[in-house]
Amino acid sequence: MPEILTFTPNPSIDVFTTVERVVDTRKMRCGAERRDPGGGGVNVARVIQRLGGDCTAVVMAGGQTGEMLRQLLAAEKVPTACVGIAGHTRESFSVLETGTGREFRFVLPGPVITGNDWQRCHDALAAFDPAPRFLVLSGRLPPGAPVDGYAQLARAAAARGTQVAIDTSGPALAAALEAGVAIVKPSVDELRELTGQPLTDETQWCAAARQIVRDGRARMVALTLGGRGALLVERHRVLRAPALPVKMVSAIGAGDSFLAALVWALNRGAGTGEAFRYGMAAAAAALLSAGTGLCHKEDVERFYRDMPSHAATLE
């Protein structure tokens, strides 16, 4: 049985291409396309597999695109358990505007699922015996899923002794935190939405994250700051690391790579500081790949080795 499970209720086929300039009305002749299996938990599983971790991706998938998703995951040698649904797995479309370096991302809502679909997800996750050490719940919930869907899964996992990491937003995130998790990985915008506060500077970011920990909603808050790096907040300390200097190809999947490496390292018995540095290294490595190519192990290890001057600092 795997040591780490990821669950992606709304996975996607991620299509990436390039164009000189995005304009309205006219046809835009694009560059060669690439297709990757996508969705938050899928991306996390892909990275953990590349790092040598023991991980299985649990997905809800259906239709021809669902079959393509399974094939793409098999091609990357990611063990997968699929909960079949009637609807078609969604596609997402990303375009790099080569003339400016800007990225455009078009994200479809995904298929509508039923209460029976959701119950089968519960059953699929509960069927793993022994229970995994970590369960990563990642991505937005699909239409039809209960708002407290992740909260339900978090409670069930915790009752089996599994540590839960959550990466989502909006009401689903708020509900999951009320249930309590081990790790939450919001962006600053997601933390603003969660708290209803402007959170304009680092002092306010730390205070908001500390409040989540004090309230018992999460043991660890890993707050990603984009080009400004990241914060990791626990009850008795805050770790801060700036972003590594990287010539960015694409920012897509950097947050998923960060969470994957963090959980992978913690599962190996790494301390919080070491796991945080691996997360930073993976996020930087993801910037080197086009679209949802994500990070590669050799780049993660190289950035981790070269990180002394950028190491997380205790505050």
Automatic annotation (TrEMBL):
- List all membrane-crossing ranges: none
Task: Please give one Gene Ontology molecular function term for this protein.
Answer: ATP binding
From the UniProt annotation, give the residues forming the signal peptide: none
Q: Which UniProt keywords apply?
A: ATP-binding, Kinase, Nucleotide-binding, Transferase
Q: Where is the Carbohydrate kinase PfkB domain?
A: 14-295
For this protein, the record's Gene3D superfamilies field holds: 3.40.1190.20
One Pfam family from the record: PfkB
Entries under InterPro entries matching the protein: Carboh/pur_kinase_PfkB_CS, PfkB_dom, Ribokinase-like, Tagatose/fructose_Pkinase
> Which SUPFAM superfamilies does the record associate with it?
Ribokinase-like (SSF53613)
The answer to whether the entry has keyword Nucleotide-binding is yes
Q: Name one GO cellular component term.
A: cytosol
Q: Which PANTHER family match?
A: 1-PHOSPHOFRUCTOKINASE-RELATED, ATP-DEPENDENT 6-PHOSPHOFRUCTOKINASE ISOZYME 2
* Family statement: Belongs to the carbohydrate kinase PfkB family.
Tell me what this protein is called.
Phosphofructokinase
Q: Which organism is it from?
A: Pandoraea thiooxydans
Organism ancestry? Bacteria, Pseudomonadati, Pseudomonadota, Betaproteobacteria, Burkholderiales
